Amino acid sequence: MNIRVSNDEAGYGKLARWIAGKSRLVCMELTGVYVFGLSIAAVYDKSNYGIYKGVFTGSSGNIVINIKADGSATATLIIDGQEYVFASSGTIKKDSDSQVIFTNQIGSFVFSVKADGSSPSFSAITIAGHSQAGIAVIKETSEHVVHCYEGKAYYNNEEGATFNFVVTDNKIEGLVKSHSDRPHMITGTFVNNAIDCMIDDGVNFKGTISGNTATGTWKDVNPQSDEFGIQGTWSATKKM
What contacts 104, CB < 8 A, 6 or more positions away? Predict the structure, then answer.
């Protein structure tokens, strides 16, 4: 459920007073309720229930998973601009470790998450036409909005890999995937608008975000790598 609000000051004042008086009821009954882009369902901040946003590689895309207050769940996956809605079966128990199977006519995947909403992960990803696909998400909370970026990494000014990531608060997570390779996980920091992250085979990505665009450089810093020392650039655009 979305609350749509006019931009006028009077409308905002009425909404603020309504939330102040009804926030307990709203938080108990709803999930994924947003006011000016921020979730007000703070009761789910430390729960497996709530909103998870992320990115897809295999081609390129983004995903939103919504585990709702009634225990049902949906996943909306956008690949190359095409939207696919995945359904789940059964009821998900609140505040418990969960494993959810999502299915759609184009494929399926398993989403796992801890009782407090931490450590979201994916397995058994099978999407038609997208071999060795990968998905990475971060949970959105009442205090921290998650933003998703899709981009490319370049070597000698030629496209080398898909570089998709999500940022929130002070961290960044995501995936890097070349055409024939498996997806590599990205983890790192996002502090003072600066990105500093590493993928699992020892390549360091650094950069900054300006508006809806992120740019930077990458370098192989693994001395055991056959490609140690090579470097290039990357760029990405915010999708949500």
Answer: 77, 84, 85, 86, 87
Q: How far is CA 11 from CA 8, 133, 215, in A?
A: 5, 44, 38
Which range is least confidently modeled, 4-8, 59-63, 85-89, 162-166? 4-8
What are residue 66's DSSP bridge partners?
51, 74
Q: Output Rg (C-alpha) for the chain, integer angstroms.
A: 19
Instruction: Give all domains of the chain, ordered by start, each with its CATH number.
Output: 9-42 (no CATH), 146-240 (2.40.160.90)
Pick the closest to residue 151 from 140, 139, 138, 167 (CA basis).
167
pTM: 0.81
- Residue of 3 and 41 predicted with greater confidence: 41
pLDDT value, residue 115: 97
